From TrEMBL:
<dbReference type="InterPro" id="IPR039261">
    <property type="entry name" value="FNR_nucleotide-bd"/>
</dbReference>
<feature type="region of interest" description="Disordered">
    <location>
        <begin position="87"/>
        <end position="118"/>
    </location>
</feature>
<dbReference type="InterPro" id="IPR017900">
    <property type="entry name" value="4Fe4S_Fe_S_CS"/>
</dbReference>
<keyword id="KW-0521">NADP</keyword>
<dbReference type="InterPro" id="IPR015701">
    <property type="entry name" value="FNR"/>
</dbReference>
<dbReference type="Pfam" id="PF14697">
    <property type="entry name" value="Fer4_21"/>
</dbReference>
<keyword id="KW-0408">Iron</keyword>
<feature type="domain" description="FAD-binding FR-type">
    <location>
        <begin position="150"/>
        <end position="272"/>
    </location>
</feature>
<comment type="subunit">
    <text>Homodimer.</text>
</comment>
<protein>
    <recommendedName>
        <fullName>Benzoyl-CoA oxygenase component A</fullName>
        <ecNumber>1.14.13.208</ecNumber>
    </recommendedName>
</protein>
<dbReference type="InterPro" id="IPR001709">
    <property type="entry name" value="Flavoprot_Pyr_Nucl_cyt_Rdtase"/>
</dbReference>
<dbReference type="InterPro" id="IPR008333">
    <property type="entry name" value="Cbr1-like_FAD-bd_dom"/>
</dbReference>
<keyword id="KW-0274">FAD</keyword>
<dbReference type="InterPro" id="IPR001433">
    <property type="entry name" value="OxRdtase_FAD/NAD-bd"/>
</dbReference>
<keyword id="KW-0479">Metal-binding</keyword>
<dbReference type="Pfam" id="PF00970">
    <property type="entry name" value="FAD_binding_6"/>
</dbReference>
<keyword id="KW-0560">Oxidoreductase</keyword>
Length: 421
């Protein structure tokens, strides 16, 4: 006697468009290219995703951690997901019947991976995730996603200052936002989303844009419910063509007293350690200085309260005039922070990048690499990431350290954090 044809139910991986801030972390992290995007949404290909979970922890907002039980034959196609403004409601008749691992069957490349092993998600993520996906053990507990697109919090501009030389094309601003009595607790290394007013050409509201916080947890002004951002005015795209960055120009043009819609906070891993003997090795370019400034200022304020760890900074820019916070950096005590600057476009001088400065200080970098309480933070343009990791490998090798095993251990222990864009 013939039985009923079994119905295949898939636990489909989806990205919430209401929470997603389009930071591209998930697409860069995915080891099998299951995530794609257009100008509207980031989406997951149902026939490619194998439920490895590599993208879950790095997502700063949690938008990536969404699932819907669907009939496999009726999985939401990519073209439909790209049009969404919100996630579809779960069909209660299917809820709980799906399995994350079932997505491995029929994955791109042809055929099923087969066997029970294919149904077990890889909880640790992929080896292609090159930095830590866990915070330092002593980091303070972060608050995340307190405010979203539908219900943002309003902040008032209390300061907007250019922090690069007026003679340069690099227009970078230090912007201070005050939240008044509205709770907005943040930690160094976290970010927020800013929603620019107006709509796109097709009438959609602008997506939020992500900006790292440049001030410590107790406020840009100590004891106040405010924070600072480091924002560069975007006037050209990656190909050098003239373009106006909608949110960056909006922020850089703000005046004192203006009100801004804010989402967040975001981020639960790129956090600083709180134990007093921890060392910070910070490597950044341009506006990637924001989280480094926050961490440095927090340590400076606590310097007389038991913080004994070393701070070493490598900071790169095209020229001295294009390096934000140049003056204040030079005023920091030499026995508090070891600052190394690198300029790649100084007239009459050879190009010099942060990697070159690190090589020049190889012995001191190696000493930090040997220390179990050293935490490394890299923030800036994506192009710097390979070079920084390569020079760390070289310095480690020359010092007799096994870089592959050290790299893996630092990732596992929450001591190697990469935030590049």
């Amino acid at each position: 006697m013939n039985g009923p044809v079994p119905v295949e139910v898939l636990k489909q991986h989806l990205i919430d468009p209401e929470i997603c801030i389009r930071c591209n972390t998930c697409e860069e992290t995915c080891p099998i290219d299951a995530i794609t995007h257009d100008e509207n949404n980031y989406v997951v290909r149902a026939d490619t995703c194998n439920g490895c979970m590599a993208c879950i922890s790095p997502c700063p907002t949690g938008a990536i951690d969404n699932w819907r039980d669907v009939l496999r034959a009726e999985a939401y196609p990519v073209d439909e997901q790209l049009t969404w403004d919100e996630l579809p409601v779960q069909d209660d008749t299917l809820a709980g019947q799906g399995s994350i691992g079932e997505a491995t069957e029929g994955a791109a490349g042809g055929g099923s991976t087969g066997g029970a092993e294919s149904a077990e998600p890889v909880i640790g993520g992929s080896d292609l995730v090159r930095g830590s996906v866990v915070p330092p053990w002593s980091a303070a507990k972060p608050y995340v996603n307190l405010y979203n697109h539908k219900a943002p919090v309003q902040a008032t501009v209390v300061g907007n200052y250019r922090v690069t030389d007026a003679s340069t094309e690099s227009d970078i601003h230090h912007i201070v936002l005050d939240f008044g009595k509205q709770p907005f607790p943040v930690l160094e290394g976290q970010s927020i989303g800013i929603i620019a007013p107006g709509t796109t050409a097709d009438g959609r509201a602008h997506h939020a844009r992500q900006y790292s916080i440049a001030s410590p947890r107790d406020g840009e002004r100590p004891g106040y419910n405010n924070l600072a951002l480091t924002v560069k005015r975007v006037t050209k795209d990656h190909h050098g063509q003239a373009v106006g960055g909608v949110c960056s120009n909006y922020l850089c043009d703000l005046k004192k007293g203006d009100v801004v819609n804010v989402m967040g906070p975001f981020g639960s891993t790129f956090l600083m350690p709180n134990h007093a003997d921890s060392h910070l090795l910070m490597i950044c370019t341009g506006t990637g200085a924001a989280p480094m400034r926050a961490m440095t200022e927090y340590r400076r304020r606590r310097r007389m309260k038991g913080a004994t760890g070393k701070l070493m900074l490598f900071f790169g820019a095209r020229t001295q005039g294009e390096l934000p916070y140049f003056g204040p950096l030079l005023n920091l005590p030499k026995d508090f922070i070891d600052t190394n600057l690198a300029f790649s476009r100084t007239p009459g001088q050879p190009k010099r990048y942060v990697q070159d400065a690190m090589r020049e200080r190889a012995a001191d970098v190696a000493a930090l690499l040997r220390h179990d309480h050293t935490y490394i933070y890299v923030c800036g343009l994506k192009g710097m990431e390979d070079g920084v990791l390569q020079v760390l490998q070289t310095i480690a090798g020359e010092a007799g350290l096994d870089w592959p095993s050290l790299w893996q251990r630092m990732k596992t222990e929450g001591r190697l954090h990469l935030e590049t864009y």
